[in-house]
Amino acid sequence: AQQEIEISRRVTLEELPPVLVLHLKRFVFEKTGGCQKLIKNIDYPVDLEISKDLLSTGVRGKVVKGQRTYRLFAVVYHHGNSATGGHYTTDVFHIGLNGWLRIDDQAVKVINQYQVVKQTAERTAYLLYYRRVDLL
């Protein structure tokens, strides 16, 4: 008799890097060889706290809360529906200005933080760059 069993896979972190880059998988490759872009909006915070549950048991006890807290400093966006083309822009936090800049080729403009976390169908986050706050 075949018996159904439940399995799970768990990935934990051995260390907390000074810079954490989250790569959102925006492209799904199909068996036919084609590729589809996922336009789905994903909410992401400016301040990100890594849960203790994500740390390996050896690291969990040694890490204080400040070391698990990250602040967003850059977002790269992909514009367009194709995996083979499109356009990239970035929002980056400028320490000297204490504010955000939106960079689109040679065009650079000051924006507010709300515009960084607010996504639209034509401007979907692709890469999120976070810096550990205890190292700022």
From TrEMBL:
A cellular component term from Gene Ontology for this protein is: cytosol
Keywords (alphabetical) are:
Hydrolase, Protease, Thiol protease, Ubl conjugation pathway
Instruction: Look up keyword Protease and say if it applies.
Output: yes
Name the source's superkingdom.
Eukaryota
| EC number of the protein | 3.4.19.12
Cite the GO molecular-function annotations of the record: cysteine-type deubiquitinase activity
An example GO BP is:
regulation of autophagy
Q: Which residues form the USP domain?
A: 1-133
Q: Which Pfam families match?
A: UCH (PF00443)
Q: Which residues cross the membrane?
A: none
Q: Which reaction does it catalyse?
A: Thiol-dependent hydrolysis of ester, thioester, amide, peptide and isopeptide bonds formed by the C-terminal Gly of ubiquitin (a 76-residue protein attached to proteins as an intracellular targeting signal)
Q: To which protein family does this belong? A: Belongs to the peptidase C19 family. USP10 subfamily.
| Name under which the protein is recorded | ubiquitinyl hydrolase 1
Gene that encodes the chain? LOC104944555
